[in-house]
């Protein structure tokens, strides 16, 4: 069929072989046929409900599984961001410790240099004071007055050495000032780096806090999704028993009805043989349009088992004309449960074609010729979109329509 819910109910389609119960000459009495038909209709209605619930459970499970995968990815990303932020904060803290130690060392060096500068300045000032306060000049005058030349020479030598000492002190003070200036510049750069690192540390802390908050939020969402997934999985498991029972019942009913058809097609003289050569042209496609779903097995999403898609789906708009695939006799026309509005045409020799989900039909009985208009495409029964579900059956057994084109 053209939807997920119709795929879940493929096996229900087999049950519509109950049209054999109404064939002329059937061994089943009319009242029994009506009773069985009513039971089949009730079964189809229950099947539609079960299939819908099963599909909802499967879709819910698939949705939560997809959500879980996304949530786990978001959680991993948030945790990675938090770890990266914490690691960066640790690195910045280590750099801050180093920078602050460099600051302390720089301050100590500057203090030592300043102490040495102060000591040398005191020495220089003391020398200058002794040289210029008059004590040295008075001594020189006294020596000249006494005529003691040697003493004068000694004093001049001392004066020269004092001058040399002053110059040396001035040079040392200049060097110390240059060193102090360099240390001050280095200290200023260290302090700028400390300020930058502190800002980075604050940013890293903020990032870590935000990443942790995101991780906690995602973790909570993940827990909620996991709980939802468990509920969805439980819902699917609950549907499994119903689906298994449904499949078993429909398979049993299909076997019974197929046996009735086989008995009828034999006509008491052996079953007619209807060879299905590939590409024989025995049948024509009943409606113009692309094949959207082939005949063959499908997987039940609840049971995980294979179910037979008993016909071929042809995409066509509602109201498109439907033509008889071959000449024959209309043996059934009406609402057929999951098939919706359907027409069955008997072509003789055990070959029957069915046309399903129609919006309406032109012929409800009597003979039709190949290509005659018999109805219009629709979306009745277990269908969610306009299309034609076309079946070919041989002695009641569904076969691949492609063998009869």
UniProtKB/TrEMBL annotation:
The keyword GTP-binding does not apply. The keyword Coiled coil applies. Residues 1-29 form the signal peptide. Residues 308-401 form the M23ase beta-sheet core domain. One of its GO terms (molecular function) is metalloendopeptidase activity. Keywords: Coiled coil, Signal. Residues 261-282 are annotated as: Disordered. InterPro entries: Cell_wall_metabolism_enzyme, Dup_hybrid_motif, M23ase_b-sheet_dom. Residues 33-81, 173-260 form a coiled coil. CDD domains: M23_peptidase. It comes from the Bacteria. PANTHER family: L-ALA--D-GLU ENDOPEPTIDASE, PEPTIDASE-RELATED. This is Peptidase M23 family protein. It comes from Austwickia chelonae NBRC 105200. The lineage of its organism: Bacteria, Bacillati, Actinomycetota, Actinomycetes, Micrococcales.
């Amino acid at each position: 069929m053209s939807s997920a819910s119709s795929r879940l109910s493929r096996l229900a389609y087999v049950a519509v072989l109950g049209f054999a119960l109404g064939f002329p000459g059937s061994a089943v009495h009319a009242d029994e046929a009506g009773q069985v038909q009513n039971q089949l209709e009730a079964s189809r209605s229950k099947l539609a409900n079960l299939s819908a619930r099963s599909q909802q459970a499967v879709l819910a499970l698939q949705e939560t599984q997809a959500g879980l995968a996304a949530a786990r990815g978001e959680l991993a990303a948030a945790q990675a961001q938090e770890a990266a932020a914490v690691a960066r904060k640790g690195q910045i803290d280590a750099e801050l410790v180093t920078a602050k130690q460099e600051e302390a060392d720089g301050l100590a060096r500057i203090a030592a240099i300043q102490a040495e500068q102060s000591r040398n300045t005191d020495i220089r000032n003391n020398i200058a004071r002794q040289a210029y306060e008059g004590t040295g000049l008075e001594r020189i005058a006294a020596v000249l007055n006494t005529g003691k030349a040697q003493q004068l020479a000694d004093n001049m030598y001392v004066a020269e050495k004092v001058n040399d000492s002053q110059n040396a002190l001035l040079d040392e003070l200049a060097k110390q000032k240059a060193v102090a200036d360099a240390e001050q510049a280095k200290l200023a750069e260290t302090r700028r780096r400390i300020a930058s690192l502190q800002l980075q540390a604050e940013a890293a802390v903020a990032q870590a806090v935000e990443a942790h908050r995101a991780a906690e939020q995602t973790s909570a969402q993940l827990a909620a999704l996991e709980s939802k997934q468990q509920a969805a999985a439980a819902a699917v498991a609950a549907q499994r028993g119903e689906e298994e029972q449904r499949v078993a019942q429909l398979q049993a009913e299909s076997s019974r009805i197929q046996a009735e058809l086989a008995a009828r097609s034999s006509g008491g003289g052996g079953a007619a043989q209807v060879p299905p050569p590939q590409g024989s042209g025995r049948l024509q496609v009943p409606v113009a349009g692309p094949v959207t779903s082939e005949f063959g097995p499908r997987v039940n999403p609840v049971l995980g088992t294979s179910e037979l898609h008993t016909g071929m789906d042809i995409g066509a708009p509602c109201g498109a004309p439907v033509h008889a695939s071959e000449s024959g006799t209309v043996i059934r026309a009406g609402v057929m449960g999951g098939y919706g509005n359907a027409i069955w045409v008997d072509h003789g020799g055990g070959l029957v074609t069915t046309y399903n989900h129609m919006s309406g039909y032109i012929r409800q009985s009597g003979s039709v010729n190949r290509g005659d208009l018999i109805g219009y495409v629709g979306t009745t029964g277990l269908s969610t979109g306009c299309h034609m579900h076309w079946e070919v059956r041989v002695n009641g057994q569904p076969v691949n329509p492609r063998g009869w084109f």
